[in-house]
């Protein structure tokens, strides 16, 4: 009897083990995709900024251009450090995301002539939730900085992270030209994968007043 009973039990254990490996594999593939995509975006932004600065300065202020470029590289280094996994099991939402918004401003927005406003409520989230939400915010902010503002007049991106009725609601909104159609491409696939990994929902609105993307994620206490 015990030998017969061991077959389904062993099958169940094996099934759970294989499922766990598949989840880890998908998770790792998602992280790799995001890393490659983020590096491509970084190099694109750095290349565009150095071309713009050298074109404006010509041969008059080469040292100033190099100095600004060096500061921006350091800013991206700080941003990537924040986006890396933490040794801590949980993180302060306010501290982590306020630092993230400052790093995004220095690395991505200020060189593009875009202002950033942030409103972040206090609370605690697991390090995994914080970092994945941060990756999503970084993707949305970078995308807006690249495409939403053909004219930089009064360009603004506002980031809000608030807790309401057991749900964390994160909003990234810009006052740009408004996205047309659905999000597509590598960036959108990564966003969708990251959202699934933290059981979050993505919603988007676009119009003449700009684009507003909302991420709703269950709070964990």
Automatic annotation (TrEMBL):
It comes from the Bacteria. GO terms for molecular function: kinase activity. Residues 34-106 form the Signal transduction histidine kinase subgroup 2 dimerisation and phosphoacceptor domain. Gene3D superfamilies: Histidine kinase-like ATPase, C-terminal domain (3.30.565.10). Residues 132-215 form the Histidine kinase/HSP90-like ATPase domain. Coiled coil: none annotated. Keywords: ATP-binding, Kinase, Nucleotide-binding, Phosphoprotein, Transferase. Its EC number is 2.7.13.3. It catalyses: ATP + protein L-histidine = ADP + protein N-phospho-L-histidine. The keyword Phosphoprotein applies. This is histidine kinase.
């Amino acid at each position: 009897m015990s030998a017969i009973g061991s077959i389904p039990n062993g099958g169940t254990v094996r099934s759970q083990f294989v499922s766990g490996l598949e989840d880890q594999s998908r998770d790792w593939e998602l992280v790799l995709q995001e890393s490659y995509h983020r590096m491509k975006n970084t190099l694109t932004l750095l290349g565009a900024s150095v071309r713009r600065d050298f074109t404006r300065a010509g041969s008059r202020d080469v040292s100033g251009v190099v100095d600004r470029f060096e500061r921006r590289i350091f800013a991206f280094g700080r941003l990537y450090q924040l986006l890396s996994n933490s040794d801590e099991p949980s993180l302060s939402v306010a501290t982590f995301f306020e630092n993230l918004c400052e790093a995004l401003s220095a690395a991505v927005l200020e060189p593009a002539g875009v202002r950033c406003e942030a409103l972040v409520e206090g609370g605690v989230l697991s390090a995994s939730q914080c970092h994945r939400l941060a990756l999503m915010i970084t993707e949305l902010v970078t995308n807006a900085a690249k495409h939403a503002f053909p004219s930089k007049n009064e360009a603004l991106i506002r980031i809000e992270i608030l807790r309401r009725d057991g749900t964390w609601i994160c909003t990234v909104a810009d006052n740009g030209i408004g996205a047309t159609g659905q999000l597509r491409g590598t960036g959108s696939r990564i966003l969708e994968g990251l959202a699934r990994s933290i059981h979050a929902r993505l919603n988007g609105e676009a119009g003449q007043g700009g684009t507003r993307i909302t991420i709703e994620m269950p709070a964990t206490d």
